[in-house]
Amino acid sequence: MANDLGFWTLQALNALQLSMLLFLLSIGLTVIFGLMHFVNLAHGSLYALGAYVAASLAAVGGFWMGFFLAPVAVAGVGILLYSGLIRRMRKSGPMAQVLVTFGLIFAMLDLTRIFWGDLALAIEVPALLDGRLSFLGVEYPTYRLFIIALGLAIIAALAFVLGRTQIGAMIRAGVDNDAMAACLGINVERLFFVVFCVGCALAGLAGAVAAPLLSVTPDMGLQILIPTLIVIVIGGLGSLKGAVAGSLIFGFVQTFGAVLAPQLASVLIYALLAAVLVIKPVGLFPAKG
Questions:
Q1: How many alpha carbons fall within 13 Å on the CB side of residue 258?
Q2: Is 286 a domain residue?
Q3: Structural domains counted in the chain
Q4: Dihedral, CA atoms, 156, 159, 164, 168, nearest 10 degrees?
């Protein structure tokens, strides 16, 4: 019985770690969707860029340099994208946005290959987070526990900012009704810019923390895009609660599905997605607007 309990605890921790990684990606994208009404399919490419920047900086100054500076670098790229492309495309309609950002995926993919090549890069786990810890009766990698703790800390920070601060109230007002928010004197355009850059930084952070676990390859942004979109559709657009719920549902269904029904593991999450779309097309916890 103890061995069975330890096995299921291990699977639950694996599911939670995957969920936190997906949350870091999905929260930025879902708020961009909800607030800006902008379909940014290139969000996964920013995640891959964060991983590559982190790997390059880690080779020079160690893991922590990449961890702290990769989100800043990706936010800088987000500023360029917003100024040169996103701001002009916001009013062009979803089809044009999908086509442009889909093309941007392949443009950034080729730029990644030009700068870093096709060979996979790797980052070593820092000595502080190396090894294993005893947690809930099982030995679990310290670095994966760090990812879980980081995700929970960011959820708490975002919940505080969105629920208890003035800028959070403005963001929620913009998501609910951006035209009315503008009438009340909120600088919605500046709000869009800040949210977009924060979303880019979180994508870069997700890439930096994923790099020691996964091979850093040019197509890693494409590989994570579909899971991120599934999280957003299940959870609902524009809400922190939806991003958390969607990430947890995806992580636990994917992890436990692979254990309990390995033949159906690749189908379960899509079946759940279809069920949510049929029963509640707006997602489980969408923003009011």
A1: 10
A2: no
A3: 1
A4: 130
Q: How confident is the model at residue 151 (pLDDT cuts 50, 70, 90)?
A: very high
The whole-angstrom separation of Cα 3 and Cα 64 is: 36
pLDDT-derived band at 3 (thresholds 50, 70, 90) equals: low
In a domain, 285, yes or no: no
CATH of the domain at 87: 1.10.3470
Cβ atoms within 10 Å of 9's Cβ, excluding its own? 15
AA letter at 80: L
What pLDDT does residue 1 have?
39
Residue-range definition of the domain harbouring residue 141: 5-279
pTM of the predicted structure, to 2 decimals: 0.92
| Pair of tokens at residue 172 | 């929620």
**Is the confidence at residue 269, as pLDDT, over 70?**
yes
Helix/strand/coil (H, E, C) string of the chain? CHHHHHHHHHHHHHHHHHHHHHHHHHHHHHHHHHHHCCCCCCHHHHHHHHHHHHHHHHHHHCHHHHHHHHHHHHHHHHHHHHHHHHHHHCCCCHHHHHHHHHHHHHHHHHHHHHHHCCCCECCCCCHHHCCEEEECCEEEEHHHHHHHHHHHHHHHHHHHHHHHCHHHHHHHHHHHCHHHHHHCCCCHHHHHHHHHHHHHHHHHHHHHHHCCCCCECCCHHHHHHHHHHHHHHHHCCCCHHHHHHHHHHHHHHHHHHHHHCHHHHHHHHHHHHHHHHHHCCCCCCCCCC
Residue 287: inside a domain, yes or no?
no
Instruction: Confirm whether 238 is domain-assigned.
Output: yes
Cα dihedral 266/42/154/77 (nearest 10): 150
